[in-house]
Amino acid sequence: MNTDLSGVNWFKSSHSSGQTDCVEVAWLDGGEVGVRDSKNPTGPALIFKPGEWDAFTAGVMAGELQRPA
User: Fold this and answer.
1) What is the per-residue pLDDT across 38-47, written as a single tens digit (0 to 9) for each?
2) Does pTM surpass 0.90?
3) What's the rounded Cα separation, in Å, for the pair 12 and 18?
4) C-alpha distances in angstroms, 29 versus 1, 3, 4, 8?
5) What φ, ψ does residue 45 adopt, rounded to 5°?
6) Best CA proximity match to 5, nearest among 26, 30, 31
7) Distance from C-alpha of 58 to C-alpha of 69, rounded to nearest angstrom
8) Residues facing 47 on adjacent strands
9) Which of 7, 12, 26, 54 is most buried, judging by how many CB atoms fall within 10 Å of its CB?
10) For residue 47, how many other CB atoms are within 10 A of its CB?
11) Which residues on adjacent β-strands are paired with residue 46?
12) Is residue 67 scored above 90 in pLDDT?
């Protein structure tokens, strides 16, 4: 499925330093969430369904996605 992302309002986290290695997020129609690399704004984007985004962010907040030591 191709989602038209032209005209979408992308934003970075308020915790972002505004430098490199940032991701941008956009709230899309139907509750979907777009995620892209800020260094490549015309490149591909991930599109999460609402439940997928909720599971992802819950996992981040719970520390489940920490890189192994």
Assistant:
1) 888 888 999 9
2) no
3) 8
4) 14, 10, 10, 10
5) -130, 150
6) 26
7) 21
8) 34
9) 26
10) 18
11) 35
12) no
Cα(12)–Cα(69) distance, integer angstroms: 28
How many CB atoms are located within 10 Å of the residue 36 CB? 21
Q: Parallel, antiparallel, or unpaired: how do β-strands 23-27 and 45-48 relate?
A: unpaired
- Chain length of the chain: 69
Angle at 34 (CA atoms; ends 18, 21), nearest 5 degrees: 30
Q: What is the dihedral of CA 22, 27, 30, 36, to 10 degrees?
A: -20
The letter for the amino acid at 51 is: G
Q: How high is the pLDDT of residue 54? A: 96
Question: Which residue do the tokens 């996605």 mark?
Answer: 65
Two tokens at 2? Answer: 């191709």
Neighbouring C-beta atoms of residue 53, cutoff 10 Å: 19
Please give the Cα distance from 64 to 56 (Å, whole number): 9
